[in-house]
């Protein structure tokens, strides 16, 4: 297992290089001139433009630029922002905004696990009942409604009418994350309860569950010990990938709740062609996803002894 | 292996019955599966019983309902869609269907146990074999982890698994097919049941392994003095191991009696057809004589006798009047209006 993890970690190197190069190349190929764009209505003097181009190696060919960039990255220098926050280090921007995104992600993740799996288990055990239909109906409703609608409704109901939770911002610490966390979790939570329900129902019909019943075990033990563990394999897959998505920030939810997270910065950077910021942030996203992938594969082996890596 | 000796467990919950008296009996059991459009009658008034030390074979083709009565005993009929609409299941004189849940669970744990056709799917893939056997001792006997694993190792040894102590910590997929079925048997016998139901125990196995498993089962049965209900479609297995046989067709027992008598002198046209479909050893090139037609759809049974459409003895009476199980000779019964004629023909 240790060797397997080491091999997977080594495999991350080419993945990260490939992904960053692609992003870098795409950014390079974008039409428009970021230096001229800096000037806006009033064009910058040619000497100034020249100076900026020189400073950021903008006249070098793509491969040379990328090589210089990666050389700096390896020394811990992700470069500095050209536009979004002119002059700040990209690493400072990430350090600034990512904790907000991470907190939001963790709250959303907790909602997913507790409500998503809980609702799925209840629906599976009471399949065909009112509760099952309630879960199935509400999941369809949630995935059919755009997230910004869910967000605005949540703000109006819980923030304004009931006044129990802050409407936006992060002034009240963790409490501020409850509403956006729930909204961010909503769609995944709906999928997750579906996955849990179907997986558990399938396993409840399995032969080994009949064996467990024939052993004279209580229903609680048959479901909780025997069926649930087997049902968790697709659930864990979904959760681990979803954690990767959550940690990459969300533009809409962050925007609605006025959270200064990484999703918003990434969006601004793309719009303003702030290449160093885009590449820096995307590289981090790639790392998050590659690690999430590895975690999924390791969890498979933990949950299902038939899967062994060596 | 004190817990697998022939002497009854002094702390056991059940008193030893008089020899010959059935320990488990199913009376007039009806099981139906209700779907939105139709009602399938899987079992239509089945009765059988088994005494300590005795082997009853329930013989039938797929869809004949041979497994359903056993599933009803073990509480394994998924409801919905399955319902036990009528009948009684007596274990040591008490009707299981009218007992409390706790009582039913207790009987399943210690009174009657079951092994299935495919031990690979019947064992939980994510727990070790040892864990799954030890679970019985921990839950029902309150043994410590260590003691439960010790008993589990003893059991694996008893069913002929080499280096049992190491294999305790392996998962079902690491066992071969035969070893898995042995582990399944060990689990079924862990709490010394009075009756073992074997639901096609050898169907999924290689022929050579089949014989070993059947030998193991008959050995253990003799040692433990338990009753065995052997559900199978294999005529040879029935002839080799069973004392009595109940032949099932379309959800009914159509003939029952001692195996030797039923097989040599069938009193039901279906049994006769089964016997005639066996290829004779001495003339291997002889043409087989199969039963014509196919079994009826359980959702649309013919009126009268369910076998009549395929029966060479059928008359008008058979198509209107459904025959009940009537005595043929002492200990034998057949559900045919013309059983005497069938016996003369055989």
Write a structural description.
The complex is a heterodimer of chains A (310) and B (346). With 310 residues, chain A is mainly α. Chain A has two domains: 32-77, no CATH class; 91-303, MetI-like (MetI-like fold, Orthogonal Bundle), CATH 1.10.3720. Chain A is 75% helix and 0% strand. Chain A has 13 helices and no strands. Chain A has helices at residues 2-29, 34-39, 46-55, 62-74, 90-125, 130-144, 147-161, 178-204, 207-214, 219-247, 251-256, 262-271, 275-303. The longest helix of chain A is centred in the middle third of the chain and has 36 residues, at 90-125. Chain A is flat, with a radius of gyration of 24 Å. The model of chain A has no long low-confidence stretch (mean pLDDT 84). Chain B has 346 residues and is α/β, with parallel strands linked by helices. In chain B, strand 7 (195-199), helix 8 (207-224) and strand 8 (227-232) form a beta-alpha-beta unit. Chain B has 13 helices and twelve strands. Chain B folds into two domains: 19-242, P-loop containing nucleotide triphosphate hydrolases (Rossmann fold, 3-Layer(aba) Sandwich), CATH 3.40.50; 248-345, no CATH class. Chain A binds chain B through residues 128, 205-208, 210-218, 221, 226, 229-230, 303-306, and chain B through 74-76, 78, 80, 105-110, 113-114, 116, 118, 121-128, 135-136, 139-140, 171, 173, 187.
């Amino acid at each position: 297992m240790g060797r397997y993890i080491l091999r997977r970690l080594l495999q991350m190197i080419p993945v990260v290089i490939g992904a960053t190069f692609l992003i870098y190349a795409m950014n390079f190929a974008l039409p428009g001139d970021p230096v001229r764009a800096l000037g806006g209505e009033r064009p910058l003097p040619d000497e100034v433009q020249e100076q900026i181009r020189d400073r950021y190696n903008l006249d070098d060919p793509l491969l040379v630029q990328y090589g210089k960039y990666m050389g700096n990255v390896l020394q811990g220098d992700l470069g500095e922002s050209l536009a979004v926050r002119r002059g700040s280090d990209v690493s400072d921007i990430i350090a600034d905004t990512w904790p907000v995104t991470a907190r939001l992600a963790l709250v959303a993740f907790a909602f997913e696990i507790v409500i998503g799996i809980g609702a799925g288990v209840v629906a599976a055990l009471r399949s065909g009942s009112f509760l099952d239909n309630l879960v199935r109906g509400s999941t369809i409703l949630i995935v059919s409604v755009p997230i910004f609608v869910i967000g605005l409704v949540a703000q109006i109901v819980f923030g304004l009418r009931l006044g129990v939770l802050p409407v936006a911002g992060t002034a009240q610490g963790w409490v501020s994350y409850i509403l956006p966390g729930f909204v961010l979790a909503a769609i995944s939570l709906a999928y997750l309860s579906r996955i849990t329900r179907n997986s558990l129902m399938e396993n409840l019909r399995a032969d080994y569950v009949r064996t467990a019943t024939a052993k004279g075990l209580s229903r609680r033990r048959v479901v909780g010990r025997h069926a649930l563990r087997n049902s968790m394999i697709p659930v864990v897959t979904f959760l681990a990938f979803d954690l990767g998505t959550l940690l990459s920030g969300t533009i809409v939810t962050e925007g609605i709740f006025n959270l200064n997270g990484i999703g918003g910065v990434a969006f601004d950077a793309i719009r303003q062609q702030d290449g160093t910021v885009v590449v820096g942030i995307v590289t981090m996203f790639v790392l998050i996803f590659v690690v999430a992938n590895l975690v999924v594969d390791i969890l498979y082996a933990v949950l299902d002894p038939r899967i062994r890596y060596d | 292996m004190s817990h697998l000796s022939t002497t009854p467990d002094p702390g056991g919950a059940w008193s030893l019955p008089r020899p010959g008296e059935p320990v488990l009996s199913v009376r007039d059991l009806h099981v139906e599966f209700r779907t939105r459009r139709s009602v399938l009658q899987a079992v239509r008034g089945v009765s059988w019983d088994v005494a300590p030390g005795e082997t009853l074979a329930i013989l039938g083709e797929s869809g004949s309902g041979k497994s359903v009565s056993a599933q009803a005993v073990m509480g394994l009929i998924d409801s919905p869609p399955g319902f036990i609409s009528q009948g009684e299941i007596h274990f040591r004189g008490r009707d299981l269907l009218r007992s409390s849940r706790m009582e039913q669970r207790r009987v399943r744990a210690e009174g009657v146990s079951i092994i299935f056709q495919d031990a690979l799917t019947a064992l939980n893939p994510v727990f070790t074999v040892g864990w799954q056997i030890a679970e019985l001792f921990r839950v029902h006997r309150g043994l410590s982890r260590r003691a439960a694993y010790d008993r589990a190792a003893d059991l694996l040894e008893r069913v002929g698994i080499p280096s049992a102590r190491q294999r305790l910590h392996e998962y079902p997929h690491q066992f071969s097919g035969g070893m898995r079925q042995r582990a399944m048997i060990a689990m079924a016998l862990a709490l010394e049941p009075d009756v073992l139901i074997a639901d096609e125990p050898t169907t999924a196995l290689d022929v050579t392994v089949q014989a070993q498993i059947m030998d193991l089962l008959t050995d253990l049965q003799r040692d433990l003095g338990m009753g065995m209900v052997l559900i199978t479609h294999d005529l040879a297995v029935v002839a080799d191991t069973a004392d009595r046989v109940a032949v099932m067709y379309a959800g009914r027992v159509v003939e029952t009696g001692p195996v030797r008598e039923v097989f040599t002198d069938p009193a039901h046209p279906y049994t006769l057809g089964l016997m005639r479909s066996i290829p004779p050893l001495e003339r291997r090139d002889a043409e087989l004589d199969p039963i014509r037609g196919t079994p009826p759809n359980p959702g649309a049974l013919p009126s009268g006798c369910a076998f009549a459409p395929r029966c060479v003895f059928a008359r008008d009476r058979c198509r209107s009047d459904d025959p009940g199980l009537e005595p043929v000779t002492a200990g034998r019964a057949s559900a045919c209006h013309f059983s005497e004629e069938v016996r003369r023909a055989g």
